[in-house]
Specification:
The strands form 4 sheets. Strands 1, 3, 4, 5, 8, 9, 10, 13 and 14 form a 9-stranded antiparallel beta sheet that branches. Strands 2, 15, 16, 17, 18, 19, 20 and 21 form an 8-stranded antiparallel beta sheet that branches. This protein starts with a strand and ends in an 11-residue tail after the last strand. The protein has 2 domains: about 110 residues, Jelly Rolls, CATH 2.60.120; about 90 residues, Sandwich (Jelly Rolls). A hairpin with a 2-residue loop joins strand 8 and strand 9. It is globular. It is built from no helices and 21 strands. It is mainly β. About 0% of the residues lie in helices and about 60% in strands. This is ChrR Cupin-like domain protein. Pfam families: Cupin_7 (PF12973). InterPro entries: ChrR-like_cupin_dom, RmlC-like_jellyroll, RmlC_Cupin_sf. It comes from Roseovarius mucosus.
């Protein structure tokens, strides 16, 4: 399967408008944003766990990173409430699920295969003091990519070059970008060489963002 697999193109998806699709596991549904591959895929997805649902134990051969958007994600390593950012690099294992139910934004098979840096963070705890109405938290940074979380005050602007590509998820509030209104659940991907010019709406905005990584995009090694 290929979905939004041309990384030279700008893509906007308003994920809240997509229908939920069933996964192979009962009670776990998903909204696909981009994908190369079948059930083993380089994929960016919104995943919803119904209360009491879970996946069987598995190894993330190509790594996994995710944000908990609502509810509480759980595995044998602990409970992960809304606002948690998690990186599970290649070779890590777990049995994911959620007794209360949750929704996560997850990216699979997008790691450096030698990365072994496993961690979790409360994103809001990492925010630095705001500059010109924008507070930034650097969640992860290496030679391939930078992952950030940002709070924009109402009317604050954010301009960035998309060297190596850029993608963002609006976690809360709204922004206007290139004439488009992006609201909670909207996902934007810009190709290498593009640029971001965003202005927060009346409610401000909360953004998860990754830059630099798209030049490394490739199908999963299976």
């Amino acid at each position: 399967m290929e979905l939004n697999a041309d990384f030279s193109k700008r893509v906007v998806v308003h994920s809240n408008a997509l229908e939920w699709q069933a996964s192979p596991m009962k009670g776990v549904d998903r909204r696909m944003l981009d994908r190369i591959g079948g059930e083993v895929a380089r994929a960016t997805t919104i995943v919803r766990y119904a209360p009491g649902s879970k996946f069987s134990a598995h190894t993330h051969t190509g790594g996994e990173e995710f944000i908990v958007l609502d509810g509480v994600f759980q595995d044998e390593h602990g409970d992960f409430p809304a606002g948690t950012y998690v990186r599970n690099p290649p070779t890590t294992q777990h049995t994911p699920g959620s007794e209360p139910g949750c929704t996560i934004f997850v990216k699979l098979w997008q790691f450096d295969m030698n990365d072994r840096n496993q961690f979790r963070k409360n994103m809001a705890d990492e925010l630095a003091a705001p500059v010109d109405g924008v507070a930034t938290a650097i969640l992860h940074e290496d030679s391939r990519e930078t992952v950030t979380y940002r709070h924009l005050d109402a009317g604050a602007s954010l301009a960035l070059d998309a060297e190596g590509g850029l993608e963002l998820l609006v976690i809360g509030g709204e922004i206007t970008e290139n004439g488009n209104e992006l609201h909670t659940g909207s996902w934007l991907r810009l190709p290498d060489g593009g640029s971001l010019h965003a202005v927060a709406g009346a409610n401000g905005a909360k953004l998860w963002m990754k830059t630099g990584h798209l030049v490394y995009a490739q199908p999963p090694a299976v």
